[in-house]
């Protein structure tokens, strides 16, 4: 396509026409600026509306119970007494404990992937760990219920109960549906997130620090501990807090396994309740009234906690990015690097000092190689090997769930997935082959169609809006609007961590008020998923555009292109494949989301006949049928999980492959 | 966008042809991915647009007197009758070419959806109280459509099916007062059994459920303590027991009890009998002092006996105190219940009302209490008696759209 209005043509057209063209271009440019700014403001307005609707809906409960809501354990619809304490304690306990379990393993994985593993192994292993993060939460919950739970109930929990001094923590009877199992599945789910951020932070540490530590005589583990972990610390902490945010907001998997009893947990084997799970389980049960208001107030509390945690995480991670990306002042980088190296040398020496017969004190860092006693060296080597073994074990722990999930899904749902009718037929009459009953398998055709249609609707909303808002943030954040851009970017980032059940509740309430008959419909489900996608698309656009070298922009501007053309043609063109990758990841997130659809889409047994009518989708179908006592429904649910896993893995592996080919092509 | 490979890119830097792009990019391998992704997105969007055209054909109106076809009704509610409802909708569809989308989302969801006017009908075993009914935007009809059996299931090592339980004992178990399986109160009625000492894990529904209504109705009648502390409803605040769990959905609760030792729970008979795993369930004490095994026949007998002793309100009346629990006959199973459909009497007050849809709704309701009753027994539910069919019929006949009666089609 030719770029019109470029300088090459400028000389050949009459002055008057040229002026008119410039005027038109100015108007167009202004209009474009207006549109992208409007999209950015739209993101702000949406977030504000979400908060406003939730708080307004929680109003009756807020005014009735006041702050006492947070400390009351009651949940009694008959006597209209409601309190959030069990859910708050359950949320904090499960996510805090999950963090305790996940962080050491995630660190081990990150160290292995960044420092220990041979280079050829790093990428495939990192891919497997990252893929674990793409498994939908409903599938994790499904797996937790059928694989993790029996194991917990029959082996782990009885063993824990027999530990000395453990009675206080593991009182009660092992059921496998309790705080501990919920904690474990949360740990499994946040592990890949923490590991990915930690790995990136470790890899961002300049290689020269590692190498100089090694050259000073440190073992690989010592180099990691003394030279790498320090500089990577703030990034790692950011990842940990991000993981905490995920755990706090996790809804579906926890709802499937935590026991859903509104008691303040008395032990790790006690059933419990979390804020998100309680809303997901009960919101569709209650009509307008105090109980609904109280449930929404739980949502407000949850919103507050997740926003707080996510803001903290972003600040830590962004701090790291700024640090890494800041331009070196003249001499500053060298000085900083030198002082970092000196610190590493000092630390090494401090450890060796007790055994340092020469008594060298504070020589220049460049000349000091602390002499190492042979016996100590052997011990240090053994220590290093132990650490390598430990990190390897961490990797094994981290990748096991993904393979177990895939294996279980293939084993239990494979028979369904290879039946052609499974993709075209509707749900069967619930049936088990007992008393000579002949059962049909049925299928999930309507659910697959529903998911595709919902994703199409969501993309229609989220892709243009997110793209425009992202363009504003990345390209038009100058002068007065830079504050707005920063806020939009930050909010979009934080919104990606807000539990999607809250988005579902918000969209449902808004539809109820403004498009009542479509409150449970493809439209409301599509809008909810669109809202799930919007912040991801916005951030992905921003990141992709920022990755385009500013030379490209400057060159195009210098050639006389108007700003909006530079953005639309040159910058978007250059960032095209990164953009597509971002969109696909947003799509994959939406495809795996259950919570936002639970209260919106409504569910259907049939193919869509009307977009304003209730519609089915794969994830709510799994959630509704995962514990069915009917054999054909169980098989269908596992088959659906397998199909969903296939879709998610295809999208994620596909984008990975595309990104790799792109980066290889650019070399 | 014009295509530029590596070759054209380098050529462009020297000759500057007019129609070359300004930016030199390396795109090897990218075009393919982009095309694939683009095509996929395009297909998805085209699908949506294509369906759109088909979907908005509108409902097919029928000639006067004839029945409309191709319409969809939305229903939500009890999973107590999930198996029956899915059989009904399949048969109704094949006989009338109309579609009923019944989502067994639980009684609470069904009632809420009807109240919020997002479904055409709801199903539950827990009739509305007058204060609940007051929240609706118009008068609702209560239509009993089948009888059913609530079964007390348990999973205790060494204890076979047929544990003898009374309502009073069950109430104490669910109130956390009887906490172990070998409690004397349980042992008293089970002299032949070797009861283990395990702590009882009580399981109830986490969502609002019609089965919870039937259980709490029964426990309220047999235990004054339960009646005053908890009461009856589809969603009650279960007292704290030493061990308890809450599960969403009948079928899931059944699976949970089957897989967890020392549990006790409550589900419908059909789910129990249709399960591939053998489930042990209790014989319940009825008012005549007999422990009765739950069967469809024992429930049919209970409903017949209790119906004789009951003056039913009209369909537009309040059914909150109608109870099929604790029939007096010696063979009557005490935890018996009706499953009800709820609809707005004036369909205008309900979900997206049209004349045609109101007609289809009436057709569906008539079908359920008529032809649909022949599906009931095979699934271990109990067909409703002719007196109730008559009561339902007059209720359905009282339905209106736009102030006028809704003409039945033939």
What can you tell me about this protein's structure?
The complex is a heterodimer of chains A (667) and B (410). Chain A has 667 residues and is mainly alpha-helical. Chain A is 72% helix and 1% strand. Chain A has a two-stranded antiparallel ribbon with strand order 1-2. In chain A, a hairpin with a 4-residue loop joins β1 and β2 (81-82). The two termini of chain A are 26 Å apart. Mean pLDDT of chain A is 84; it is low at 324-331 and 353-373. In chain B, the strands form three sheets. In chain B, strands 1, 2, 3, 4, 6, 7, 8, 9 and 12 form a nine-stranded mixed sheet that branches. Chain B has a three-stranded mixed sheet with strand order 5-10-11. In chain B, α6 (167-174) crosses α8 and α13 runs antiparallel to α14 (386-397). Chain B is globular and about 65 Å long. Chains A and B meet through β1, α14, α18, α19 and α20 of A and α2, β1, α3, β2 and α4 of B.
Short structural description:
The complex is a heterodimer of chains A (667) and B (410). Chain A has 667 residues and is an all-alpha fold. Chain A contains 23 helices and two strands.
